[in-house]
Specification:
three-stranded antiparallel sheet; 6 helices; alpha+beta; 159 residues; binds zinc ion; 2 domains
């Protein structure tokens, strides 16, 4: 391990202890050249986040695929590409597990969109959940709260 201050290779571990409830090892190091101290963390990295689909099949999580869906839901809405990229590319770290159900991805994405833009949220909701009737869809929108009333004309225009 190189010293981050002087780049010397001659550093040694002073002590190490578990951190983050055992998920990481925290090591305190000292540089033999400049005598400065620094901390490193060692943690396990999952190979790749696996998605468990409703059919029971598994596939590797693909942030680009999630990003595509977000872009479609946010088309012409006041949402920046940067906001969407941040969500899609940090998703794997947020989950902190080797596997995630596709429903859970949908749930987290809905939560994210709800905080961003109501129209994008409703667009994603309409695709993601197979509503068996128009009434159930409208009911879901009503539950959004008082803002929902203002959205109804917009929905009609777009459908
Ligand atoms: Zn040093």
């Amino acid at each position: 391990m190189k010293c981050p201050f002087c780049s010397s290779d001659d550093t040694r571990v002073i002590n190490s202890r578990p951190s983050d409830e055992g998920a990481a090892i925290r090591r305190r190091r000292e540089c033999a050249a400049c005598h400065r101290r620094f901390t490193t963390y060692e943690r396990a990295q999952f190979e790749a986040l696996m998605v468990r689909k409703r059919s029971g099949r598994h596939e590797a999580f693909n942030p680009d695929k999630l990003l595509d869906k977000l872009r479609i839901a946010c088309n012409k809405r006041p949402v920046t590409e940067k906001q969407l990229r941040e969500f899609a590319y940090s998703f794997e770290d947020e989950v902190q597990a080797p596997e995630v159900a596709s429903d859970e991805i949908g749930r987290r994405t809905l939560q994210f969109l709800k905080s961003l833009d109501d129209v994008a949220y409703i667009r994603f909701l309409s695709v993601y959940r197979d509503f068996d009737s128009v009434d159930r869809f409208i009911e879901e929108i009503r539950q959004l709260g008082s803002d929902a009333a203002a959205l109804e004309p917009e929905l009609e225009r777009e459908s």
